[in-house]
């Protein structure tokens, strides 16, 4: 492994201790070896050779039977705006790392933009191991440089969308599901992507104000213990805290477990029953949610009960099985963190020559591929991984051309469309694939043509 010593970059104008990210920075948001490889390609005179890279997962995260593809909208935005400006190039040159790079490399970056094609499965589509979520067909240097950003975007949003789809599947269509993960997401940028992926995956709303407004959605939330404690201390009681908040936000649920959940519910019931207050809902954030929700339901039979507190699909399934009286859930930490989607981005064709990787545990299939899906009555019957130009009868090709010569072909889909596709896609899966305990993923068949190409490629590279 080649490493480089710490250097004084000498480019004060590009230093940013706050590490804020802007659109102009996207091209530099890459791993160093993408740039060093691009420089090497340029030196060898092969940088413009047409290359095809495919992004897929070799295996699903443990406990997952499927993935919901997500993040394509941000990928296309990134590729559309992919540029290097003079300040970025100067900063790279000042590192000293590229001292032996050919001069043509700098000309390439100065004049370059993404000019390739992109094939992808629509967002909200269920996919399985070894099925490409996306394929990039572009000059080698371009296809190489975009790897890091594409993986970051698709891996994270696919994880969140899949968790959201599983949560919706377990909680049912009637339950209200809110995304509360901004404070637990891995960065401010990630919190925006998490909110988007969660909504597209099936959740109803997000508490992330910036994400909601940027997406054209209405933010949704409740209240925190701090307000109850502050107003109780300053104005005399928990009941007065509820009165004050309800005065300004009558439609928001009241958080009732700061002190004594049952006592709070009893006092609210008296006010509701007397007609003094019209209450829309209450939230439980701690304690035995099963017994508490049943007690609260007996006291407030017509009021929505909302639960939160490190919930995930497994906990919700247990609550439902135990007969908890809960109408909605707030999902935060477990939704926006957890087992990563370990997507990879691999070269499959260079200058018309199929290539493959034979490393132990890291095998890849050669050539440009397509996913052929067979559905009968809306139910998935089989998936076949084949070459991009096969004509398989009674099957639907999933990868679609979404960018041609660097130009996006269609406007971005709205969240409602993607959410509906997610719902339909999950409903099409076998029950054994959707279950939480020991799910069985769909077995992806390999077409005869792809098997033949794989054997030919192996013989070619071993000879």
Detail the topology: elements first, then pairings:
Elements: H1 32-43, E1 50-57, E2 67-68, H2 72-80, H3 86-94, H4 103-111, E3 117-120, E4 126-127, E5 134-139, H5 140-145, H6 147-171, E6 176-179, H7 188-201, E7 205-206, H8 209-214, H9 225-235, H10 238-248, E8 254-255, H11 261-273, E9 281-284, H12 289-299, E10 304-307, H13 313-321, E11 328-331, H14 333-336, E12 343-350, E13 353-354, E14 369-376, E15 379-387, E16 396-397, E17 400-404, E18 407-408, H15 415-427, H16 431-434, E19 444-446, H17 448-462
Parallel strand pairs: 6-7, 6-11, 8-9, 9-10, 10-11, 15-19
Antiparallel strand pairs: 1-5, 1-12, 2-4, 3-5, 3-17, 12-13, 14-15, 14-16, 17-18
Task: Identify the notable features of this structure and list them briefly.
alpha/beta; 39% helix; six-stranded parallel β-sheet; seven-stranded antiparallel β-sheet; 463 residues; 17 helices; disordered N terminus
* Number of separate helices: 17
Q: Compute the number of strand runs.
A: 19
Q: What structural class is derived from the secondary structure elements?
A: alpha/beta
State the separation between the terminal residues, measured CA to CA. Answer: 28 Å
Q: Which whole number gives the mean pLDDT?
A: 93
- Give me the Rg, rounded: 26 Å
* Strand neighbour order, sheet with most strands: 13-12-1-5-3-17-18
The best one-word shape is globular
**Main sheet overview:** 7 strands, antiparallel
Low-confidence stretches: 1-12
Helicity level, as a percent range? 25-40%
Strand content: 15-25%
């Amino acid at each position: 492994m080649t490493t480089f010593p710490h250097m004084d970059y000498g480019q004060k104008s590009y230093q940013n201790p706050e590490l804020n990210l802007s659109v102009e920075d996207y091209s530099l948001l890459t791993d160093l070896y993408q740039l060093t490889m691009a420089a090497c390609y340029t030196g060898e005179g092969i940088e413009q050779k047409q290359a095809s890279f495919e992004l897929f997962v070799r295996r699903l995260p443990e406990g997952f039977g499927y993935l919901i593809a997500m993040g394509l909208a941000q990928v296309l935005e990134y590729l559309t705006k992919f540029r290097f400006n003079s300040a970025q190039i100067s900063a790279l040159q000042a590192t000293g790392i590229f001292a032996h790079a050919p001069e043509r490399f700098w000309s390439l970056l100065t004049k370059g933009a993404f000019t390739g094609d992109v094939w992808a499965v629509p967002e909200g589509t269920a996919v399985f191991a070894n099925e490409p979520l996306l394929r990039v067909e572009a000059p080698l240097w371009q296809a190489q440089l975009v790897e890091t950003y594409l993986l970051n975007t698709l891996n994270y949003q696919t994880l969140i969308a899949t968790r959201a789809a599983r949560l919706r599947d377990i909680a049912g269509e009637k339950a209200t599901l809110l995304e509360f993960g901004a404070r637990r997401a891995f960065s401010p940028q990630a919190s925006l992507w998490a909110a988007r992926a969660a909504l597209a995956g099936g959740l109803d709303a997000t508490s992330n104000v910036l994400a909601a407004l940027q997406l054209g959605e209405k933010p949704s939330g409740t209240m925190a213990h701090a307000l109850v404690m502050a107003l109780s201390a300053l104005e005399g009681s928990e009941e007065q805290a509820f009165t004050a908040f309800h005065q300004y936000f009558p439609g928001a649920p009241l958080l009732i477990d700061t002190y004594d959940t049952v006592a709070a519910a009893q006092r609210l019931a008296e006010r509701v029953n007397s007609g003094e207050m019209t209450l829309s809902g209450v939230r439980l954030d701690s304690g035995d949610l099963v017994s508490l929700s049943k007690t609260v339901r007996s006291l407030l039979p017509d009021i929505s009960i909302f639960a939160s507190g490190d919930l995930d699909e497994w906990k919700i399934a247990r609550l439902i099985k135990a007969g908890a009286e809960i109408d909605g859930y707030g999902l935060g930490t477990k939704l926006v963190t957890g087992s990563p989607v370990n997507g990879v981005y691999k070269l499959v064709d260079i200058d018309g020559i199929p290539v493959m990787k034979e490393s132990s545990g890291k095998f890849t299939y050669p050539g440009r591929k397509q996913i052929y899906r067979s559905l009968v009555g809306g139910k998935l019957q089989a998936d076949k991984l084949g070459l991009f130009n096969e004509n398989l009868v009674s099957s639907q090709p999933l990868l679609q051309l979404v960018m041609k010569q660097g130009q996006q072909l269609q406007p971005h889909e709205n969240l409602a469309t993607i959410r509906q596709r997610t719902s339909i896609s999950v409903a099409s899966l076998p029950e054994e694939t959707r279950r939480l305990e020991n799910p069985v993923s769909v077995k992806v068949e390999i077409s005869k043509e792809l098997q033949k190409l794989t054997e030919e490629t192996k013989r070619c590279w071993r000879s």
